[in-house]
Amino acid sequence: MTTDDGRDGGPGPTPSLRTARVLRVTETACDVWHDGRVATVPFAATVPSPHTERFSPGHLVAIAAPAGGRDVVVWRWYDAVVLDDERDGSVRLWEPAHGEVLARPRPGCPHLEPGVRAYASAGLPGADWWVAAAVGTGDSVPPVDLDEVAELYTSSRLGAAALG
User: Is 147 helix (H, G, I), strand (E, B) or coil?
Assistant: First the structure.
C-alpha cells in the first residue's frame, strides 16, 4: 500500500468496507449473503485460522474491496445473545464459542433487551468486547462499527497485509 501522498510504507488509504451475513464456511472462504445474492469470498491473510472454528453461519463480516483486486473477508462480528445489563453500563452477552462475555455498547447502540440477538466484536480498541447492534433480518445493513474496523486496518498497517 502507499500513503495518501503516494509514498510507499505509510499506512495506506482507508479500505472500502461493506458487510455481509455468513451462510457457510470453509477453511479458505465463506459463502455470504449481500445485496440479495450469495457470493463466495476468500479470507484475507490477516484473518486468523482455523476459519471453520472461528466463523459460523449468522456471523456478520466486513468485506474489503481492494482497488483492482479480489474482495476478501477482513473482520467478523459474532452473533451473540443479550443476557443482561450491568451496573457499569456494559452488557452481558452469551456467544457460543466464548460463553459469557461483558461488552461495552457502541455509541448509538440502542438498549438491547435480554434475549435479543446482537452483533458483538472483539479486538477493536477501547474494550475487550463491543456490542454494536441488534441482529436484523433481510437486506438491511445493521449499524455496526465499520468505521472503527477501517481505522484499525489503516492505523495498524493491517490493510497492506490483508489487501496485498
Answer: helix
Q: What is the CATH number of domain 78-134?
A: 2.40.50
Residue 77's alpha-carbon distances to 1, 12, 54, 68, 119, in angstroms, are: 26, 24, 11, 26, 6
Q: Could you tell me the three cell numbers for 65?
A: 474491496
pLDDT at 7 over 70: no
Instruction: Output the nine-digit C-alpha cell for 32.
Output: 455470504
Q: What is the pLDDT of residue 138?
A: 63
CA pair distance 163, 29, nearest whole angstrom: 15
CA dist 76 and 60 (Å) reads 6
Topology classification of domain 17-76+141-163 = SH3 type barrels. (2.30.30)
Reading phi first (left if > 0) and then psi (alpha if -120 to 50, else beta), residue 12 is in left
